[in-house]
Design goal:
heterodimer, A: alpha+beta, two-stranded antiparallel ribbon, 3 helices, B: 18 helices
C-alpha cells in the first residue's frame, strides 16, 4: 500500500540523514482532513503538510526533510 | 532501463514512443506468425481462440500503457486543491457540469474519497456539486474510455463518456435539489483545517513526464493480471460459445435485463481494465449495448467498497439516496440505448 511505502521511505530518509524524529502514522480521517490533505498518502512535518497524494523517492523525501529543517 | 527513464525521462519518452508505434503496427503479423509456428490449422476453434488471445493481450496492454502515461502527465496539471477552488460557490447546475468534467481529469482514488469530500464541503462546494464530482471521477475513467475506443471504436467510447457525464450531472443536480445537507455526518461541518499553510509546488516538465512513467509502473503492474484473465475468458468464449448465447439473457427483448445487470453490477467491483474484456465477450455474444454499458457503469461507477467508505461521512439515508439516484440514472441510460439501437 502507498501509505506503508511512504512510511518506510520516510524512515529510511530520516535514518540516512541521521535526523531523530517521532514518525507517526495517522489514519483518522478527521485529523487528515484537518491538515487540509485531500489526497492520501500525505506527510506532515512539524504540523505542516509537505507531501500530499504522492509517494516520492527516498532521495526526494530527503530533500523535503532538509528544506524543512533549514526553514 | 528503469534507471535510464529516471535520469533521462524526456529522451526515454521519444525512444519508447518509437518502439510503441513499431510494436503496435506489428501486432497482427506477429500474432499470425505465432499461430503458424504452432502448426495449428486456421479456422479451428482452438486456433481462433489462441489467435484472439495473442493479438488482444499485447494490443490492450499497449493501449493501456499509452493512455495511462498521457493521463499521468495531464493529471499533474489538475490537483484536488485547484479543482476545489474552481468549484467553490458555483451555482447548482453550472457547478454540476463543471464538477463532472473535472472529475475526469482530477487525480482521484476511492481511498481518498473521504478527505476529498471533507475538503470540498469545507471550501463551500455545494453538496450536489460534490456528488457530481464523486460520481464522475471513478465512472468516467480514462482507462475505460480508451479501452472502449481501442476495442469497439470511437462511437462506443463517446457514448460511454457522454452518458457517464449526463448521469454525473443529473444525479448531482437531483441530490443538490433534495436539500439533504442534514444527512451529512455532523462532524464534517466542524472541521476547520489549516489548509492555508499548504503551498503548491509547481512541477517542472521533467517531473510531469516522470509522473507519467510512475503512473504506468503503478497501474499497469496492478492491472495486467486482470487483463490476462479477462481476455482469456474472452478468448475462451470467442471460439467456443455460440454467437447468440447471450441474446436471450441480455438481449433487447429481455426487458428486465437492464435492472438485473445493474443489480448484479453494483456489488461487483472491478477496475475498468478488468471489466472491459468481459464487456467485449458479452457484446460479441449478442448482449445488447444498453444492457452491457449499464452493467459496466454499475461495476466501476458504483462500488460497495467506496459506499462503505462514504458511510463515514454520510448518514445511511443519504447513502441510499446516492446509490438509488445513480443506479436510476444508469438504468435509464441502459434502456435508452436499447431503445435507440
Amino acid at each position: 500500500m502507498n501509505c506503508q511505502t511512504l512510511f518506510k521511505r520516510t524512515e529510511e530518509a530520516l535514518r540516512e540523514l541521521h535526523i531523530e524524529a517521532i514518525l507517526e502514522k495517522e489514519t483518522d480521517f478527521q485529523k487528515i482532513a484537518f491538515y487540509g490533505i485531500m489526497r492520501t498518502p500525505g506527510l506532515v512535518i512539524d504540523e505542516k503538510v509537505a507531501i500530499s497524494g504522492s509517494v516520492p523517492t527516498v532521495e526526494k523525501i530527503k530533500d523535503i526533510l532538509l528544506t524543512h529543517q533549514s526553514a | 532501463m528503469i534507471k535510464f527513464i529516471d535520469q533521462h525521462p524526456i529522451s526515454a519518452t521519444v525512444i519508447l514512443t518509437g518502439l510503441w508505434i513499431t510494436l503496435y503496427a506489428a501486432l497482427q503479423p506477429l500474432a499470425d506468425a505465432f499461430i503458424s509456428i504452432t502448426g495449428l490449422t486456421s479456422g479451428e476453434h482452438l486456433t481462433e481462440a489462441l489467435r484472439f488471445f495473442v493479438f488482444e493481450v499485447p494490443k490492450v496492454l499497449l493501449l493501456l500503457t499509452l493512455v495511462v502515461f498521457v493521463v499521468g502527465i495531464v493529471r499533474t496539471y489538475f490537483s484536488p486543491e485547484r479543482t476545489r477552488k474552481l468549484l467553490g460557490g458555483k451555482s447548482l447546475f453550472a457547478g454540476n457540469v463543471l464538477a463532472s468534467m473535472l472529475g475526469i481529469v482530477t487525480p482521484f482514488c476511492s481511498c481518498s474519497a473521504i478527505p476529498l469530500f471533507i475538503g470540498f464541503v469545507e471550501a463551500g462546494v455545494p453538496l450536489g456539486v460534490t456528488f457530481s464530482f464523486l460520481i464522475a471521477a471513478p465512472m468516467i475513467n480514462e482507462i475505460a474510455v480508451v479501452l472502449l475506443f481501442g476495442l469497439f471504436g470511437w462511437q462506443t467510447a463517446f457514448l460511454y463518456m457522454s452518458t457517464g457525464l449526463l448521469i454525473a450531472i443529473t444525479a448531482g443536480y437531483v441530490i443538490g435539489r433534495l436539500k439533504v445537507e442534514h444527512l451529512v455526518e455532523d462532524w464534517v461541518y466542524q472541521i476547520h483545517s489549516n489548509a492555508a499553510v499548504m503551498e503548491e509546488i509547481v512541477p517542472s516538465f521533467r517531473d510531469r513526464i516522470q509522473s507519467g512513467f510512475g503512473a504506468v509502473k503503478d497501474i499497469v503492474a496492478k492491472v495486467w493480471p486482470y487483463l490476462l484473465l479477462g481476455i482469456g475468458v474472452g478468448a475462451g468464449i470467442h471460439g467456443y460459445v455460440p454467437e447468440n448465447f447471450m441474446a436471450g439473457l441480455m438481449g433487447k427483448s429481455a426487458w428486465w435485463s437492464v435492472p438485473a445487470a445493474v443489480l448484479i453490477g453494483v456489488p461487483l467491483y472491478s477496475n475498468a481494465a478488468g471489466i472491459i474484456p468481459i464487456v467485449h465477450a458479452l457484446l460479441e455474444k449478442g448482449a445488447s449495448l444498453g444492457t452491457t454499458l449499464a452493467f459496466m457503469m454499475a461495476v466501476i461507477g458504483l462500488s460497495l467498497p467506496e459506499t462503505i467508505i462514504l458511510r463515514k461521512v454520510l448518514k445511511m439515508p443519504l447513502i441510499f439516496i446516492f446509490v438509488g439516484v445513480v443506479a436510476g440514472g444508469i438504468i435509464f441510460v441502459g434502456y435508452f440505448f436499447n431503445f435507440v439501437y
